[in-house]
Design brief:
Distance between the termini: 47 Å
Oligomer: single chain
Order of helices and strands: HHHHHHHH
Helix content: over 70%
Number of strands: 0
Largest sheet: none
């Protein structure tokens, strides 16, 4: 049991480590609104992973391995990423510590939306993640499979919490120019991911 829990936790941390849309938004929220807002983004993303883990245990994820669902999730992902990119550019035009509106959308909902609308995440659960979870299931929703899934989600949230802490408490040492540059960078990253995802969708349905 301990080996399964540790393995799940380590894989969760490894999945969360790369700087993608979720980490970018966590950093942006932390620098703008503090630790709690950034952590809620990570919590939302972890919640989306928890749902996919549960669906994998129930065998439902395989039903989503259809072109129509790939297109729906991909289209939603493009819209979410493009929206976040535009919002990041908007934030870069505002004084970083003013009392005006912060990044648009509730942080939990934004984090959940990024996680659940990312077809790459679904693909991971259809392949590697699904195989790892079912390897511990014994042909069903066994105790070890549940333990692996829970520890996996916990690992994701742990790393998101670390990043949220660094961004939320590190903003006090950053000047306005640095915060503006980070918002512009975040906007470029989001729009870059959106264009990359859109290109993949067009290639898949040519």
């Amino acid at each position: 049991m301990i080996e399964v829990v540790v393995s799940g936790w380590m894989i969760g941390v490894a999945i969360a480590l790369p700087v993608g849309p979720v980490i970018t938004e966590i950093i942006r929220r932390g620098l703008r609104a503090g630790f709690l807002a950034a952590w809620q983004v990570g919590l939302g993303a972890a919640a989306s992973h928890a749902i996919l883990v549960a669906l994998t245990l129930l065998g439902v994820v395989t039903l989503l391995d259809r072109p129509i669902w790939h297109a729906v999730l991909g289209g939603a992902g493009v819209l979410v990423l493009a929206y976040l990119g535009v919002d990041a550019f908007r934030a870069s035009t505002q004084p970083p510590l003013d009392t005006g509106p912060g990044p648009a959308g509730h942080p939990f909902v934004v984090g959940f939306g990024i996680g659940i609308a990312n077809p790459i995440t679904l693909l991971w659960f259809l392949t590697v993640g699904g195989a790892l979870i079912t390897a511990h299931s014994g042909g069903g929703t066994g105790r070890l499979a549940v333990a692996f899934g829970v520890s996996f989600v916990t690992g994701v949230l742990c790393w998101d919490t670390v990043v949220a802490g660094l961004a939320g408490y590190g903003r006090r040492w950053m000047g306005s120019r640095t915060l503006k540059a980070l918002n512009v960078t975040a906007g470029l990253v989001f729009l870059g991911f959106a264009l990359r995802l859109l290109w993949k969708l067009t290639q898949a349905y040519r």
